[in-house]
Specification:
- The protein folds into two domains: 55 residues, no CATH class; 77 residues, Elongation Factor Tu (Ef-tu), domain 3 (Beta Barrel), CATH 2.40.30.
- The model has no long low-confidence stretch (mean pLDDT 91).
- It has a four-stranded antiparallel beta sheet with strand order 7-10-9-8, with no helix packed on it. Strands 1-4 form a two-stranded parallel sheet.
- It is built from no helices and ten strands.
- The protein is mostly beta strands.
- It is globular, with a radius of gyration of 19 Å.
Length: 137
């Protein structure tokens, strides 16, 4: 879908549902420039809902978050999870900061996933910029 903005007022935008989730990639691209219409309070580009609803049903994942099994060092492009995740090649994941700098959150794409000793070993599309600590502090 291509749009400058999407404004839902007393209506509903539904993408997939519980019985038929959207398992393929859905892309909404927002276009515009500094002269585009800007809605007061809301802004210029986005999906805005007022007295309505937005329901997006993607493929269900059993594991939506987990912890690292071993510390992932900066420069590494492989992470090991504490459990087996039902994620797939092409999925985009976020590796949370494990220190006090929230700028150390990193987004990566999975390029390979293997099961090793009841844990998922995930190869990322590019090396990590920061250390991500595993274990108790």
């Amino acid at each position: 879908m291509d749009a400058e903005l999407i404004f839902i007022k007393q209506g509903h935008l539904v993408i997939g549902d519980d019985s038929q989730p959207i398992c393929k990639k859905a892309v909404i691209t927002f276009h515009g420039n500094w002269q585009s219409i800007q809605l007061p309070i809301y802004g210029q580009k986005g999906i805005f809902v007022r007295e309505g609803s937005l329901n997006i049903h993607g493929c269900p994942k059993m594991v939506t978050w987990t912890s690292l099994d071993t510390t992932a060092a900066a420069g590494s492009n492989v992470i090991t999870l504490e459990e087996i995740a039902d994620w797939a090649v092409g999925d985009v994941i976020v590796i949370a900061s494990t220190d006090y700098d929230m700028g150390h959150v990193e987004e990566r794409t999975i390029v390979d996933i293997q099961t090793v000793s009841a844990k998922s070993e995930i190869t990322l599309n590019k090396p990590l910029d920061h250390d991500h600590f595993a274990g108790d502090i």
